[in-house]
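In this section we walk through a basic example: taking a raw amino acid sequence and producing a predicted 3D structure, encoded as discrete structure tokens. The instruction is simple. Fold the sequence below.
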Amino acid sequence: MLRKIPLLVLLLIAGCSAPPTPPILVPPTTPVPPLAASQWEKLPGWPDADLQQSWKAFREGCRALKNKPAWQNVCARGEQLAEPDNAALRSFFEQDFTPYQVSNPDGTTQGLVTGYYEPRLSGSRVTTSRFKYPLYAVPDDMLTIDMGELYPQLKGLRLRGRIEGKRVVPYYDRAAIDEGKAPLQGRELFWVDDAVELFFLQVQGSGRIELPDGTLAKVGYADQNGHPYNSIGRKLVETGELKLEEASMQGIKRWAEQNPQKLPALLAQNPSYVFFRELPNGLSAPLGALGVPLTEAYSIAVDPRIVPLGTPVFLATTRPDNGEPLQRLMLAQDTGGAIKGAVRADFFWGYGDEAGAMAGKMKQKGEMWVLLPKGMELPAPVPSVTQPAAAPPVCVPAKSAQ
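The resulting token sequence is shown next.
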């Protein structure tokens, strides 16, 4: 839902605290590029990696990429492989791709790897005494402004706001929405029975709703209110409510059960709010930002400013349950509002309670190698954005699940 509005109005958008002059784009000052050419032997565990599920995820991605110039040849070559074994797949990637190690701006190569999953909630299409927490569709009054149409350097960033009188102001934050201040009546898709589960559904970006008759409805990310994501787990640690090692998804849920009277104030600490759409039940998995179904344990969310969507990414990290090495060829097929930075990934564990247990515990260190088709240009450096005197705009990726 992209609405055209005059340039003068865009420059006055209070929803981004934008001044009436365009942002100053400053070239990156760090001498360390985010991607540096590497060699296959530098990828730990590459010779022994099982590539069969990686191949399944790669072919899903080619459905969205095969018509793009940089991907036409490799996707076409991939289609010609008939039931390839591991040796054939390894040869395919080594011949058609170049590995690039991902580095942080300070030159370090380790970063944070978290996890996400597709949860199941109990809900209804009508509100009842049990089902009283709504999942909303995108509001009719929310504006979405594509900044790339104004400044090519800001391609992929969008602003959200609403009209108030003759001004465009920030869209309602979580607290205002939960208090009923936003005009969202009639935009309810479902009602669920647990506010914390609804919050984590927004964090995950997609899930399934079990209705009273036992049927399952699928929901997926549709849009976001434009406010930044703040971790409620970090807030609980900062206030002494939880120890750092307790601030997992499971730990937060236990705290919420024990402190229901404090829960609304805690949730309000994260002003970001996600809106949903109902998805066809024929989908085998949630759709990622690339527009293809995610592959359980082989798809990751990345920062697309650095890692192009659709690219294979060799991830070297550890399992959250036993600490054993987890070295795997993943596919960058999703994004997230909290997934920012170079060496940063969110690991999709799949659907259900077991996947949720793994995702909730995952906070590992890891390294990443991006595999780019030979001849593909490296992504352009990401400029920093400065604003004269005013607060910086609240901008989020075009597709973000938080």
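Looking at the output, two observations stand out. The longest strand covers residues 363-373. The mean pLDDT is 86. In the next section we compare this with other chains.
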